[in-house]
Amino acid sequence: MHNSERTQLRRKLRAARNALIPTEQQLAAQDIASQLAAVPAVKTAGSLAFYLSNDGEVSLSEFSASLLAGASSPRLALPVLHPFCRGHLLFLHYHQHTAMTENRFGIPEPSLDCTAVVPAHQLDVILMPLVGFDKDGNRLGMGGGFYDRTLANRHNWPASPRLIGIAHDCQQVDALPVAAWDVPLDAIVTPSQIIVPKDS
């Protein structure tokens, strides 16, 4: 699939998720929260990164609120655009009183605080947004490559987090082409299914 075809597919899938009405988005958020509660890696995670939804992505607000309200919540983190290493992400510890700011894409993220950085290799689970996915765990992102660059060397880390893609059902396609830099997912969770690729 050429870049132009990937761009067209992104446009189509983004339009599909943005076409969901607010009640459908709310139901998706509720269903995702229930699905994630059943994922073993999530249930046992001591540290977990999630995201704040944008551009029609499935909201994790219900899921994160339930974790924050729990007595034994994992340590939560949110992605932040790396201030020095362009195209990469940092993960910062997040709690209910975390100071937030908008990044250049208009997405809220924790205000930069070096004491709050959580090294990616110390995360047990990373919940990742995506534009498209297939049953083999391939992920089509927004095209910026932030997660791919950040996680490119994960196999050399002392421990590698479980990578779980979060999506609406309408974002599934039969097959995505795989580029050398694409980071495969260990699982995909949608409102109706939990997909664990054979190689995970």
From TrEMBL:
Keywords: ATP-binding, Magnesium, Metal-binding, Nucleotide-binding. It catalyses: (6S)-5-formyl-5,6,7,8-tetrahydrofolate + ATP = (6R)-5,10-methenyltetrahydrofolate + ADP + phosphate. GO terms for molecular function: 5-formyltetrahydrofolate cyclo-ligase activity; ATP binding; metal ion binding. Its EC number is 6.3.3.2. Its cofactor is Mg(2+). It comes from the Bacteria. GO terms for biological process: folic acid-containing compound biosynthetic process; tetrahydrofolate interconversion. Substrate binds at residues 52, 57. Signal peptide: none annotated. ATP binds at residues 6-10, 139-147. Belongs to the 5-formyltetrahydrofolate cyclo-ligase family. This is 5-formyltetrahydrofolate cyclo-ligase.
